[in-house]
Description:
- By secondary structure, this protein is of the alpha/beta class.
- The protein contains 9 helices and 11 strands.
- It folds into 2 domains: 81 residues, Winged helix-like DNA-binding domain superfamily/Winged helix DNA-binding domain (Arc Repressor Mutant, subunit A, Orthogonal Bundle), CATH 1.10.10; 201 residues, D-Maltodextrin-Binding Protein, domain 2 (3-Layer(aba) Sandwich).
- Helix 1 crosses helix 3, helix 1 crosses helix 4 and helix 2 packs across helix 3.
- The longest helix has 25 residues.
Amino acid sequence: MRNLDITTLRSFVAVADTGGVTRAAGFLHLTQSAVSMQLKRLEELLGLQLLDRSGRSIALTAAGEQLLGYARRMVALNDEVIGRLTDQAFEGEVNLGVPHDIVHPAIPRVLQRFNASFPRVKVNLTDSATRHLREGFSRGVYDLILTTESNAGEGGETIHHMPLRWVGARSGSSWRQRPLRVAFCRNCIFRSLATGALDDAGIVWEMAVDSESDRTIEATVSADLAVTVLLEGTEPSHQELIDHGGALPRLPVQQINLYGAGTTNNPLVVELAALIRQTFSSLGGTQLRAAS
């Protein structure tokens, strides 16, 4: 197996750019003989003549012109890798807050890609309710947050849309009962939207469980003791969207909003925000799945 050497390719690119071995040697801080030896070694490795030395100045042969594009990219990629892995400027921390129901699968992909580019940077991920995330962001706890809201607040950037849907146990029947038993966390931002919609529709309801635990709500709904409201596509595998045929009121589409990207000068935060946008834009609503 033959392997191209980056140092040799760098010399080849320098000769092509400067038009001669002498100038290239000065640019690379090498002796003229060292550069000439590297060029000869490269030609011998490939079995090709890369430089036309017949004239007063050195010119590239057809094979040399073809190699030049590859050589530039290989040298640039080498320098990028070295820079990313050794540049101390890319050390630090970024604090990211995300609602628990939209963590998967987007955020793990974001973290994986960000770590590949900035292995020395630590991303501190917190999952919490949108209301708590907004409060923490206003106090400077987070560099970036994602939220699920009907409308973006000041400084918010909408990056995705997802409809709210009624969710119950698989093959469940609790949605048929009246008063309708519902289950929400105390800080769930969907709670007032759902109960307001029920009131507007004249449907009598009662709170089946009042808890701060998402797991408690999930267990209650999965046992067919109540229904809840989730973003379409985030329902756990042991729950399902309720096909109620209009017996329950329609719910609004929610926005996935990003806060913090438009006011920062931190290049790490800017890069993380860009990855979040790209990843969510590549997802359809039904591809998002909550952790169960």
